[in-house]
Design a protein that fits this description.
214 residues; 10 helices
Chain lengths: 214, 214
């Protein structure tokens, strides 16, 4: 047991991502939740991406903060949950926490609040997107990563730098996909998802939140 | 001490609201949180109001459920928090809980979620309004009642029956007032509130939530 764990840790600590040549000029990059030292190594291999987004977790906040702070200086979009935002900033109020994080480097901070949706903070602007209220949440696993995937897919397709109207549309798209993925086990709901399914849920989101066009 | 408590309980149990004649033809009525037997007594004194809204709390759910169910049969708009909705319906999922409550009589159910805002359920439609993210919440006391006051004030002024677009606008107005009242102690923030202050926060709410007009 102890030997197995040591072997696993060795594999993990020896892991050094080596990006294939074709990936090095990626325009949109998502640094998923992993050791910030590896996130830095990935950043160093990239040829000036247009948009870098980043996820992290409490473990790195507590155990690799210096490296994480170096990552944040190079990130456009930080995607964290509310507890991570609080721990990173060292303050409980979520508006204060987000504003403190904006001073660490990220141009925008997205705070995921599970069933309550997402808050997005830009300098001088906030955006709130509720989660879609569902009668059945079959399996919430992967909802946060699906949100991030939809978010970045939308920004990549729009050729956008992750601010303003494009960011809001991307948050809506990520929220739509996350609301669908939890309806079945794992990522199965995404396998047979059609553009019409996505558009139908997007329209439902618009109806859910609309008091602008009344 | 014991005598004082008994006296207080006697006063409470002997309290029978007797509406002044001028109040009996009120068009819009809010049955605030009190013994459902008294809410029923108030309803019996009214001459066919256009809109009846109702609040309640866990204590009555546990200790006066039969009377409360008789109240709900005569209510247009139930305003409760998420825990009360769950306890009333006996189901955890908030969509299922709201739909179960709609079957008990109320034409609409508004579920307050504190710092996360409000969900409104009508037959076949949902509306989500986030709370305004504030850097300082000085005192949350009275936020729920301020929300209800703003909600009903808006519906009364619009001559509305509490559905559709008028309900959404009313929820926005209640949310605006609630977001202001928590900025100072008690209800003091309301004392010197100007129409311009209210409109400014309403515009901030529109900016906070807008991905409809992009």
């Amino acid at each position: 047991m102890r030997d197995t764990l040591d072997t696993q840790l060795n594999v993990l600590t020896q892991f050094q991502p080596d990006l294939p040549a074709a990936y090095r000029d990626s325009e949109v990059v998502f640094l998923a939740n992993i050791d910030p030292a590896l996130q830095l190594s990935v950043l160093d291999q990239l040829k000036g991406p247009r948009l870098v987004a980043c996820d992290t977790m409490n473990f790195w906040l507590a155990n690799a903060r210096p490296a994480l702070l170096r990552v944040l200086e190079r990130v456009d979009l930080l995607v964290v949950n509310d507890e991570e935002a609080r721990e990173l900033a060292g303050v409980h109020n979520i508006v204060k926490a987000a504003n403190a994080i904006l001073k660490l480097g990220p141009k925008r901070v997205l705070v995921k609040r599970g069933e309550y949706g997402v808050l997005a903070f830009e300098p001088g602007a906030m955006f709130a997107m509720p989660a879609y209220p569902l009668e059945e949440v079959f399996d919430p696993t992967g909802a946060g990563d699906t949100f991030a995937g939809g978010l970045l897919g939308s920004l990549a397709r729009a050729g956008a730098n992750g601010s303003g109207a494009a960011l809001r549309r991307a948050i809506a798209h990520g929220s739509v996909l996350a609301s669908l993925v939890v309806e079945r086990f794992g990522l199965r709901r995404l396998w047979d998802l059609s553009p019409a399914d996505i558009e139908a849920r997007r329209q439902a989101f618009l109806r859910l939140t609309d008091f602008h066009t009344l």
